[in-house]
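Problem: given the chain below (512 residues), write out its structure.
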Amino acid sequence: MEKYQQKSIIAVFTGGLVSVAGCFVLLYFAAQQLTTQINTDAKYIINHLDSAVKERRKILTSLNKHDFKQCGEATLLEMRRALFDSQYVIDIGFFIGDQLVCTTGAGILSKPIKDLEPDYVRTDESIRVRFEPQLYLLLFTGRPMEVVIVRQGNFNLIMESKVLNSASIKSKSWEVIYQELEEIHHLAGTKGIYSKVNEESYLPYETTYVCSSENTSYCTAVHLPWSKFFSNNHLLLIISLILTCLAGVSSALLVDARIAARRSTNQRIKKGLKKGSFYWTYQPIICLQTGKLIGCEVLARFEDKYGVVFPDEFIPVIRKNHLTWAFTEAMIATTLKELTPIEALPKGFKVSLNIFPCDVEQGNVSLLPQITELTDSRFIICLEITEDEYLDTSMAHAHFRTLVESGFNLSLDDFGTGYSNLRNLQNLSFHQLKIDRTFVQDIATEGLKASMIPNIMELVHKFNYACVAEGIETTEQEAILKTAGVHYGQGWKYGKPMTASKFKNYITSQHF
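Solution.
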């Protein structure tokens, strides 16, 4: 399978995984919201149920205390007073025996009405309860009402469930029941919901069952279907799904971009080292006192069919993949091959090669004296090594001594910018110290680093080093460095890094 196909599969898989995970998260929060909603509805119903029970007890207890024997004006007055303050009761009736003789709405009946058998009797409170799905009050014969009729003593209350059918309840499928031993008695709502909830015939999270803490026999079962919940929150759902899809697509694109950036760079560098995608450029080093060309620094560049990869990108890849020595060997072979035929370069011309500090620690530099093309070269080979903790070991010191004994020059690169141990200047067999470009660039602004150059030159003179300043771009910088006693200069003022052919033309045109 091609690499781009693999990357596409990984990106699509990641995007799909993020989308699925997003859907699960969305579903989880939807479930939490659904649970919260039905629990809120159940609590609302139970609270009203408890209030209705309290109201029933208060009214019936108060009326029965009067011990009325007949329905007269006094009886009707007390009944109407009780009805006036009630929230759940819509009518009150007075009985003599099993005969309803008067109500608050109709007054004294011309013909008494026989009481019907209750659905159940609560012996603890001596009340008789009957559910009527369609009751026509005497004053509203054309309007059926769903009510619960509760009788205690000589009075009964007609309590409508309309208060419970509030817009505050989002769950339209609910039921209030009274549970007595194994019997279930319907009181309000949709009959049969309680049985279905107990049978677990609904999807998860869309039902709940709650009993009153004050009246434990009274319970409510609530059902809010997922479909209804999503219908109630369809706009939020659509927005959430869109965001989830966007997150999936964004993740896929991000992964694809990251894979392309990281994997392709790794692969390009690895293959490029074998296929010759690396090439080397040469930047002139000038004697500041005479203006003569005395050497050059070899700088690596990379370009393949996909484009250019800059040093700050490929150097970390080379280190990470342990390709430093292979890279150095390729640099040495190519540099000697390209510079040796240039007759204009005199014997003693200094060629500066950058060496990775890790190759010092690992001992790879000990192989350099074995490269005959390097030791027999007509050039002075200067090995530039950046300040690093690897330099401050006895093993590194031994390697450096071997290199010097084999005829190599050593240069301490980027002095003052990283790991610094002044003891190295005295103990190591270095010939040259290189001032980093940041010090030179600071000259124009008279910054802190620029002020350190005289101190650096004191060290250079003390240990009898040569000194190279890199990054020179202006005549002003050159003059200041020359006055400070810096020996050599390197930078765009004298020439940018160039290929071997351009470097040859540069030498010819400058008449060095």
